[in-house]
Amino acid sequence: MTDPNRPEQRAPDNSRTGGGFRRTTKTKPNVDIYGRFEQGVALVLLLLVSSVIVVVLAHLVLTVKRELFLPLDTPLEPDLFTDIFGVTLTALIGLELNHTVLSVLQRKESVVQSRTVVLIAIIAMARKFVIIDVTTLEPLVIIALALTILVLGCVYWLLRG
To answer: Looking at the whole model, is its pTM more than 0.90?
Structure first.
Protein backbone atom coordinates (compact mmCIF):
# COMPACT_ATOMS: atom_id res chain seq x y z
CA MET A 1 0.00 0.00 0.00
CA THR A 2 1.20 3.50 -0.66
CA ASP A 3 1.11 6.30 1.84
CA PRO A 4 0.30 9.63 0.15
CA ASN A 5 1.95 11.55 3.01
CA ARG A 6 5.40 10.05 2.40
CA PRO A 7 7.24 11.77 -0.45
CA GLU A 8 8.96 8.65 -1.75
CA GLN A 9 5.61 6.86 -2.17
CA ARG A 10 3.61 9.77 -3.54
CA ALA A 11 2.41 9.53 -7.12
CA PRO A 12 4.04 12.03 -9.45
CA ASP A 13 2.20 15.28 -9.93
CA ASN A 14 1.40 15.86 -13.62
CA SER A 15 -0.08 19.30 -13.19
CA ARG A 16 1.21 22.59 -14.57
CA THR A 17 4.76 22.09 -13.31
CA GLY A 18 5.52 19.53 -15.98
CA GLY A 19 5.25 16.40 -13.85
CA GLY A 20 7.56 14.79 -11.35
CA PHE A 21 8.60 16.11 -8.01
CA ARG A 22 9.55 19.70 -7.50
CA ARG A 23 12.90 20.35 -5.94
CA THR A 24 12.99 22.88 -3.20
CA THR A 25 16.20 24.62 -2.41
CA LYS A 26 16.87 26.42 0.81
CA THR A 27 18.26 29.86 0.36
CA LYS A 28 20.38 31.63 2.92
CA PRO A 29 18.47 34.31 4.77
CA ASN A 30 19.72 37.81 4.16
CA VAL A 31 21.65 38.85 7.21
CA ASP A 32 21.58 42.61 7.53
CA ILE A 33 23.76 44.77 9.75
CA TYR A 34 21.37 44.63 12.68
CA GLY A 35 21.12 40.85 12.39
CA ARG A 36 24.90 40.59 12.60
CA PHE A 37 24.91 42.97 15.55
CA GLU A 38 22.25 40.87 17.26
CA GLN A 39 24.26 37.70 16.62
CA GLY A 40 27.41 39.33 18.04
CA VAL A 41 25.63 40.51 21.17
CA ALA A 42 24.06 37.08 21.63
CA LEU A 43 27.47 35.41 21.30
CA VAL A 44 29.04 37.73 23.89
CA LEU A 45 26.10 37.19 26.25
CA LEU A 46 26.34 33.44 25.75
CA LEU A 47 30.02 33.45 26.65
CA LEU A 48 29.52 35.72 29.67
CA VAL A 49 26.56 33.83 31.10
CA SER A 50 28.34 30.52 30.48
CA SER A 51 31.36 31.74 32.42
CA VAL A 52 29.11 32.89 35.27
CA ILE A 53 27.43 29.47 35.33
CA VAL A 54 30.82 27.73 35.47
CA VAL A 55 31.94 29.96 38.39
CA VAL A 56 28.65 29.44 40.26
CA LEU A 57 28.90 25.69 39.72
CA ALA A 58 32.50 25.63 40.96
CA HIS A 59 31.52 27.57 44.09
CA LEU A 60 28.56 25.26 44.64
CA VAL A 61 30.72 22.15 44.36
CA LEU A 62 33.33 23.56 46.73
CA THR A 63 30.71 24.68 49.24
CA VAL A 64 28.96 21.30 49.24
CA LYS A 65 32.29 19.49 49.61
CA ARG A 66 33.58 21.78 52.36
CA GLU A 67 30.38 22.31 54.35
CA LEU A 68 28.49 19.04 53.94
CA PHE A 69 31.02 16.25 53.42
CA LEU A 70 34.09 17.30 55.38
CA PRO A 71 32.74 18.21 58.84
CA LEU A 72 30.96 14.93 59.57
CA ASP A 73 31.29 15.41 63.34
CA THR A 74 29.44 18.75 63.54
CA PRO A 75 25.68 19.25 63.09
CA LEU A 76 24.47 21.00 59.95
CA GLU A 77 22.81 24.39 60.16
CA PRO A 78 19.62 25.17 58.24
CA ASP A 79 21.16 28.34 56.78
CA LEU A 80 23.66 26.17 54.93
CA PHE A 81 20.89 24.39 53.02
CA THR A 82 19.24 27.72 52.24
CA ASP A 83 22.50 29.00 50.78
CA ILE A 84 23.08 25.82 48.75
CA PHE A 85 19.56 25.81 47.31
CA GLY A 86 19.81 29.55 46.55
CA VAL A 87 23.04 29.03 44.60
CA THR A 88 21.49 26.03 42.81
CA LEU A 89 18.52 28.10 41.68
CA THR A 90 20.89 30.87 40.61
CA ALA A 91 22.65 28.34 38.36
CA LEU A 92 19.27 27.27 36.95
CA ILE A 93 18.40 30.90 36.20
CA GLY A 94 21.70 31.22 34.38
CA LEU A 95 21.05 28.06 32.39
CA GLU A 96 17.63 29.31 31.34
CA LEU A 97 19.12 32.64 30.29
CA ASN A 98 21.81 30.80 28.34
CA HIS A 99 19.20 28.66 26.59
CA THR A 100 17.30 31.79 25.59
CA VAL A 101 20.41 33.48 24.23
CA LEU A 102 21.38 30.28 22.41
CA SER A 103 18.01 30.17 20.64
CA VAL A 104 18.57 33.74 19.46
CA LEU A 105 22.08 32.80 18.33
CA GLN A 106 20.81 29.79 16.37
CA ARG A 107 18.17 32.01 14.74
CA LYS A 108 15.25 30.04 16.07
CA GLU A 109 13.87 33.32 17.30
CA SER A 110 15.08 36.79 16.51
CA VAL A 111 14.05 38.30 19.82
CA VAL A 112 13.73 36.96 23.32
CA GLN A 113 10.29 35.51 23.89
CA SER A 114 8.24 37.13 26.68
CA ARG A 115 7.19 33.71 27.96
CA THR A 116 10.82 32.87 28.67
CA VAL A 117 11.35 36.15 30.49
CA VAL A 118 8.32 35.44 32.69
CA LEU A 119 9.61 31.90 33.36
CA ILE A 120 12.99 33.29 34.45
CA ALA A 121 11.19 35.76 36.72
CA ILE A 122 9.20 32.89 38.27
CA ILE A 123 12.42 30.95 38.93
CA ALA A 124 13.95 34.09 40.45
CA MET A 125 10.93 34.51 42.71
CA ALA A 126 11.14 30.85 43.72
CA ARG A 127 14.79 31.46 44.61
CA LYS A 128 13.72 34.46 46.69
CA PHE A 129 11.20 32.31 48.57
CA VAL A 130 13.86 29.68 49.27
CA ILE A 131 16.45 32.09 50.65
CA ILE A 132 14.09 34.47 52.44
CA ASP A 133 14.04 34.72 56.23
CA VAL A 134 10.38 35.27 57.00
CA THR A 135 11.06 36.09 60.65
CA THR A 136 12.67 39.41 59.69
CA LEU A 137 10.09 40.54 57.12
CA GLU A 138 6.90 42.46 57.64
CA PRO A 139 3.70 40.65 56.65
CA LEU A 140 2.99 43.20 53.92
CA VAL A 141 6.26 42.32 52.16
CA ILE A 142 5.39 38.62 52.23
CA ILE A 143 1.93 39.36 50.83
CA ALA A 144 3.50 41.49 48.06
CA LEU A 145 5.91 38.68 47.15
CA ALA A 146 3.06 36.15 47.12
CA LEU A 147 0.98 38.41 44.86
CA THR A 148 3.97 38.87 42.57
CA ILE A 149 4.41 35.13 42.10
CA LEU A 150 0.64 34.74 41.59
CA VAL A 151 0.60 37.43 38.89
CA LEU A 152 3.68 35.95 37.20
CA GLY A 153 1.99 32.54 37.19
CA CYS A 154 -1.14 34.02 35.62
CA VAL A 155 0.89 35.84 32.96
CA TYR A 156 2.81 32.66 32.16
CA TRP A 157 -0.48 30.76 31.88
CA LEU A 158 -1.86 33.44 29.52
CA LEU A 159 1.30 33.34 27.38
CA ARG A 160 1.43 29.56 27.08
CA GLY A 161 0.20 29.95 23.57
So the answer is: no
